[in-house]
What we know:
The chain is of the alpha+beta class. The chain is extended. It has helices spanning 36-54, 60-64, and strands at 9-12, 18-22, 28-30. The chain has a three-stranded antiparallel sheet, with helices on one face. A hairpin with a 5-residue loop joins strand 1 (9-12) and strand 2.
Amino acid sequence: MTSPPEFLVALHEDDGTLIVGIRPDGHITTGPNYQPDTAAREFWDAVTRAAQAASPIPSSKEQQA
Length: 65
């Protein structure tokens, strides 16, 4: 049996330092440089990238190129 992952969702800085992580039990762990605005920006940037990668429809910027 495998153990559950440490985090269900985790955001890291480019050097691998944890910004914020959400554990399977719902608890949140913040890293040493945690800034709520930075964490939110990183989260929504990741969601946007994932949505663009999954979408067969080009974005408005891609359509204009």
